[in-house]
Amino acid sequence: MIKLLCVFSLFCYVNGVMFHLKPNLQRCLKEDMQPNQLVKGEYEVSNIPGQIIDYVARDTKGHILSKGEHITKGKFTFMSEVYETYEICFISKVPPHQRGIEQEVSLITKKGVETRTYEGIQEAAKLKPMEVELKRLEDLSDSIVRDFALMRKREEEMRDTNEKTNSRVLFFSIFSMCCLLGLATWQVLYLRRYFKAKKLIE
User: Fold this and answer.
1) Which residue range(s) make up the domain with 20?
2) How far apart are CA 132 and CA 136, in angstroms?
């Protein structure tokens, strides 16, 4: 059982990053997410007087899912609507008269199964700690299976697109060769008639 728990702990959806944000620049973190997936995040920014950092979470179409201004420390949540790439951007703003200093930003994000709390389930169903852990691992394994199924579906779609592209390139190559052969034949016949008209050849 302990080995099984160690194996499943490798598939946790917790992401923690720390980086330095230069003055008057922005840095974005992107990730692909499944539809209807809850995302929770917790951030902390080093405080430097006069400097401001904002954050915004959005999709590829520019729809804002969550945002905050003048942040120092806090949390955010949002729900992904469709399968696509979502990004969380941190934007530094420094007044023109002030010399900017790099600020340290730490971010911890959880998505999917890792956002669930099982304390309520444990109290409602009167489950033992081991049963709660097994329930969590069951949900985690289901999520991993769905991820693999989605990856397989995308791989099939990409393979179909690749095969269609290859067939189109083949037909275009054959068409180009036919055009070149036709043009070369027409050029030979035209030059032959021209030289005959000039009586350069018989």
Assistant:
1) 12-115
2) 6
Q: Provide the greatest CA pair distance for the chain.
A: 107
Whether 43 maps to a domain, the answer reads yes
Average pLDDT over residues 159-186: 94
Model pTM above 0.70: no
Structural domains of the chain, count: 1
Cα distance between residue 155 and residue 90, in whole Å? 32
The reply to whether 103 falls in a domain is yes
Tell me the per-residue pLDDT of 12-60, one tens digit each, with 9 for 90 and over.
445 678 888 899 999 998 888 878 888 888 999 998 888 899 999 988 8
Quote the tokens at residue 13: 């959806």
The sign one gets for the Cα dihedral 193, 197, 201, 202 is: positive
Residue 77: inside a domain, yes or no? Answer: yes
